[in-house]
Write a structure and sequence with these properties.
Blueprint lengths: L8 H5 L3 H7 L4 E6 L2 E13 L19 H4 L5 E6 L3 E8 L6 E12 L1 H8 L12 H8 L15 E4 L10 E4 L16 E4 L11
Antiparallel strand pairs: 1-2, 1-6, 2-5, 2-8, 3-4, 4-5, 7-8
The chain binds a DNA duplex (12 and 12 nucleotides) through β3, β4 and α5.
Length: 204
DNA sequence: CTGGCGATTCTC
DNA sequence: AGAATCGCCAGA
């Protein structure tokens, strides 16, 4: 390839979670493990703005073994186990010691559909195949072993295929499942592509 | 050391 | 509406 489409470090570091959460819509998330190449077009994200964000694991500068990834320089994955059974994928944003991240919530299957269908036990045309952060991780084979992986390597990365959305094609809404975040719970930090079926259906 | 609780999903 | 399922982390 003449021009690599793989997004590089500066794209993740020289920005903030709010901008990136919107800009990642339409980008293509790839995973390649055990010879299985799969990818999905990012259709839904949420911004977590760091130490001041009551919904963030890094709220109040909380720094533990789990949250360590977020304190690293941007451009790596932050994966954690949620509800004891789902692996959730975040993209670490910004500089060193600035724990901001973007949660990838949904993708539209793009490559390796047979692998995705095998993992999810359903058709890749079914929106539930990769909508919602837990389902998306299962569809793309994302596990804890991806935690702290640089997106510049060849197990998990993001490509720009030129797909762009206008502002009026992007819906913003409150983040899901963060009612504990009090006054930050209703901030419109969730973004998804209008009229795309591959987004979280219910919200509470 | 302990116990309450999830950035969820699926079934009943 | 409830279950599944287990690591995290604040508090003792």
């Amino acid at each position: 390839m003449m021009n690599s489409k793989k997004l590089q470090r500066p794209y993740f570091q020289n920005t903030d979670a709010l901008f990136l959460a919107k800009d990642l819509l339409g980008k293509v998330l790839f995973t390649h493990k055990n010879g299985e190449l799969t990818a999905g077009i990012i259709t839904e994200t949420e911004a977590y703005f760091g130490t001041e964000d009551k919904a963030s694991h890094a709220y109040g500068c909380r720094r533990t073994a789990r949250t360590e990834a977020m304190y690293q320089p941007g451009g790596i994955a932050y994966i954690y186990l949620c509800y004891g059974m789902h692996y959730l994928l975040n993209i670490v944003v910004s500089e060193n010691d600035d724990p901001k991240s973007v949660l990838i919530r949904s993708v539209q299957p793009f490559k390796g559909l047979s692998f995705i269908e095998e993992r999810r036990k359903r058709s890749a045309a079914e929106p539930s195949v990769s909508s919602g952060p837990g389902s998306l991780s299962q569809a793309l084979g994302i596990y804890l072993s991806f935690n702290k992986k640089p997106l510049t390597e060849d197990e998990i990365w993001i490509e720009d295929h030129g797909l762009r959305y206008r502002d009026d094609e992007i819906i913003s809404a409150p983040r899901i499942g963060v009612s504990y975040a009090k006054e930050h719970a209703l901030l419109p930090l969730r973004f998804y592509v209008k009229n795309n079926r591959f987004v979280t259906q219910k919200s509470k």
